[in-house]
Amino acid sequence: MKTHILWDIDGTLIHNSPDGANVYLEAFTQLTGAPPLHRITNPHGMTEGQLLSELLQLNGQPSTMLDDLLTELDVHTLAQHDGGFIREAVAGGPEALREVAHRGWDNALLTGNGPLHSRYKLLAAGYSADDFTWQNSFFGDRSPSRPHLTSLVTPQLGDGTHIIVGDTPNDGIAADAASLPFIAVATGAYSVADLRNTSALLVVDNLVGGLEEVLDTITQLTERG
């Protein structure tokens, strides 16, 4: 049976970027004709569907605008990419993907971002689209929450070992909701101490010093079946 490693993106494979989030504000402004008066204060671990729905609600806009807002977001994401916007991969991220693939495990994504936004974020940080199995990945642009997103994993991937790797307590909550194992990396907005208060089987500072522990934990889960 196949082992699927479902990587989060922001804070896990790439560093969070306040400037990168400008595309949300630009898309909202373009669609509604005015910038949002109220913003989401803690977006970490939210899906895009959840974040944008709440942004619309906070600013008195109808929820029916979500699809148009997502379409506008893709336009601004592409423009940002074409403008040469650079993101930063976390230390050890590319090596972790290589080691996972070398062991015959599948690198896929479970992210709050949509497919296009995910692709251009990763490319801007120096990853390749070929690093991931996109048909085995899960995207949150139309998902109301991470638990909803993780609920799709086993029905779609079937039997096997499916492991969430993320950087927020919300990743852990979502993994728990679907009875999936969770490995936490403290390369995002949350500390090791924060992440140890989750159900994570393993918490590491980063994917450099912690990579062997991550690989050992995946091996144990794979052998357990």
Structure characterization notes:
- The protein has 225 residues and is α/β, with parallel strands linked by helices.
- The protein has two domains: 3-16 and 88-224, 3-Layer(aba) Sandwich (Rossmann fold); 19-82.
- The chain has ten helices and six strands; from the N terminus they run βααααβαβααβαβαβα.
- The protein has helices at residues 22-32, 48-58, 66-82, 93-102, 115-124, 146-150, 153-157, 169-177, 192-196, 211-224; strands at 3-7, 106-111, 138-139, 161-166, 182-185, 202-204.
- Strands 3-2-1-4-5-6 form a six-stranded parallel beta sheet, sandwiched between helices.
- Helix 1 (22-32) packs across helix 3 (66-82) and helix 3 packs parallel to helix 5 (115-124).
- The radius of gyration is 17 Å and the shape is globular.
- This is Phosphoglycolate phosphatase-like HAD superfamily hydrolase.
- Keywords: Hydrolase.
- One of its GO terms (cellular component) is cytosol.
- One of its GO terms (molecular function) is phosphoglycolate phosphatase activity.
- InterPro entries: HAD-like_hydrolase_sf (IPR050155), HAD-like_sf (IPR036412), HAD_sf (IPR023214), PGP-like_dom2 (IPR023198).
CATH architecture classification of the largest domain = 3-Layer(aba) Sandwich
- The shape is globular
Determine the CATH superfamily of the largest domain. Answer: HAD superfamily/HAD-like
- Helix run count: 10
Which CATH class of the largest domain?
A: Alpha Beta
* Side-by-side strand order of the widest sheet: 3-2-1-4-5-6
Radius of gyration: 17 Å
Work out the helicity level.
Answer: 40-55%
User: Proportion of β residues?
Assistant: 5-15%
Unreliable spans: none
Tally of distinct domains? 2
